[in-house]
Description:
Blueprint: E1 4-8, H1 15-28, E2 35-39, H2 45-54, E3 60-65, H3 82-87, E4 92-95, H4 98-103, H5 108-121, E5 124-129, H6 133-137, H7 141-152, E6 163-166, H8 180-197, E7 203-206, H9 211-217, E8 225-228, H10 235-242
Parallel strand pairs: 1-2, 1-8, 2-3, 3-4, 4-5, 5-6, 6-7, 7-8
Amino acid sequence: MKKIFAANWKLFKSPKETREFFAQWSEAFKGSKNEVVFFPSAMSLEAASTSIQKINAGYDLSFGVQNAYFQAQGAFTGENSAAVVKELGGKYVLIGHSERRQLFAEKNELLADKVAFTQGLGLVPMLCIGETLQEREAGQTKSVLKTQLTAGLAKADKVKTLVVAYEPVWAIGTGKVATPEQVQETHKDVFEILSTLGFTAPILYGGSVKPDNAAGLIQIPHVDGFLVGGASLEVPSFQKICSAI
Ligand code: PGA
């Protein structure tokens, strides 16, 4: 199966920096049998869209938005529209990243509406799940993930495409990557929970993925790709990660 390598740029890179990145990227990265996805900040989406359209990629190259509301338009000050992402040629909507859950208090019920709305538009939701350190230490990882998946996918269409990103909260931006054993065990659990709920979806790992750990992690069963933050901001490091297999 094709792996998915996704870059989460968070609130980094202006439109100008985005164009500069893609100019370098198209020189440095010539191809892959895998899929490469970029999640720029919303204000740099059009720059990313235009840049990506100019790249004559011989591989699957796409982009998406880091968050979008569950309505296409209306009186929702400050929100992003997935319909606009679609108009720009985007493919994905990242939903429920731990920063959205923790800093912006997004709850599973809201995420379920976003997943359903995204699928309804014909875009692909990438639903993020993950436990905190406290939850892992209390032995609650599997039950937390089960709750996040059950509630987050409550309104999802089982036939439409879906991607899940498992990101232990304690590994995001901390340099503390989960051990191969932890990744293996947890991805197996996520796969089983998804199967029980009736879903089949690629499961990405995220949390301090770097060029030096990517090759090992991508070999683990049920690791179908990565969601990469810090190491996706520079062309050389993200290119190395995308070449891990
Ligand atoms: P990180 O971020 O790779 O910097 O840990 C991952 C993410 O937040 O998606």
